[in-house]
Amino acid sequence: MVVAADLFAERLLDWYRVHGRHDLPWQSSSHAGESDRNLSLYRTWISEIMLQQTQVATVIPYYQRFMKRFSDIASLAQASQDDVLLHWAGLGYYSRARNLHKAAVAIAGNHDGCFPTEYEDVLALPGIGPSTAGAILAQALDQRYAILDGNVKRVLARHEAVDGWPGQTSVEKQLWQYAEAYTPGADVADYTQAIMDLGATVCTRSSAKCTSCPLSDSCQALATGRVDELPGRKPKKTLPVREKRFLIIRQADGRCLMEKRPPAGIWGGLWSLPELPMELAVDEAVYQNWRLSVAEYSDLPVFRHSFSHFHLDITPCEVDLTGTEAAVADEARYQWHEDIESLALAAPVSHIMRSVK
């Protein structure tokens, strides 16, 4: 540590009172006078899950729409997973939505519908790790728990000149030690928001605003000219490219054949379009897989959708049937739908359907 913990926190809190974000829709100040701490915990929990790997500006409209539909734990627990995914669609990382739903059901069954207030109980909920558990209790209840999200990692890695990629276990362990040491005993909710805000608005990944930073005179990265170097970057690797043809198969009445994705894996639980390997003949494969007779088909322009571990080059393909009444054998997986907008769609599928509408 290059500065006393109390001074570190004091500088951050002084900066936060003037420059921090105080009007985010999930902050307690947005609903002052609220007596129900269960609702405060719920709102904080939803926001923290949405903010994982997603920027605040992106999250806000999704959060507001989600909270309008699922205003409390009971409404979330009682909803279907399809409904939850529908209100999450477009935000990405869909395991977060599935885990939210699972956790709400667990809270309803094991905690009488009240969000737990003990750290170990929070940590035991699906989709919640140590940093998220700490952030929920710190922000909603002012309990003293450290956090270590991406913004905080960047602030601490620069301030303490911690070498290495924060995703490495040894580096993360070191950063946790600093996070614990600097977390104050009081004003924890404000401190937690302050250090996240500093990373998001001042100590940014590129073009850091060091002259506006309250910690600049004790920052080791700034003192040694290593701000752009720290934190260390994730080792680069070349992502493989996969190719798929996404079929837009419509009946004469306008209904489109949709595929329900398996509950786990990519786009788990969402609706997608039937897929084919690019090398297969469309008419033959459509008949073989779904016993549908193709009159003609045409490919649309290819576009790329990237995941963390591979790129997917998608070729949308409009398929016209001969007019024969369509039957699909696996009705749990494949169904005809007319109102596509009412389905929880994978993001690239939503893009395709908008473009051909």
Secondary-structure map with pairings?
Blueprint: H1 5-19, H2 37-50, H3 56-69, H4 73-78, H5 81-88, H6 95-110, H7 119-123, H8 130-141, H9 150-159, H10 169-182, H11 188-201, H12 220-223, E1 241-250, E2 256-260, E3 271-272, E4 275-276, H13 282-290, E5 294-299, E6 303-306, E7 311-321, E8 334-337, H14 347-356
Parallel strand pairs: 1-7
Antiparallel strand pairs: 1-4, 2-3, 2-8, 5-7, 6-7
Helix pairs in contact: 1-11, 2-3, 2-8, 8-11, 9-10, 9-11
What does this protein structure show overall?
This protein has 357 residues and is of the alpha+beta class. It has two domains: 5-223, Endonuclease III, domain 1; 241-356, Nucleoside Triphosphate Pyrophosphohydrolase, CATH 3.90.79. Helix content is 42%, strand content 12%. Strands 1, 4, 5, 6 and 7 form a five-stranded mixed beta sheet that branches. Strands 3-2-8 form a three-stranded antiparallel beta sheet, with no helix packed on it. A hairpin with a 4-residue loop joins strand 6 (303-306) and strand 7 (311-321). The longest helix has 16 residues, at 95-110.
Computed structural class: alpha+beta
The first-level CATH class of the largest domain is given as Mainly Alpha
Number of domains: 2
Biggest sheet, in brief? 5 strands, mixed
Residue windows where pLDDT falls under 50 for at least 5 positions: 29-35
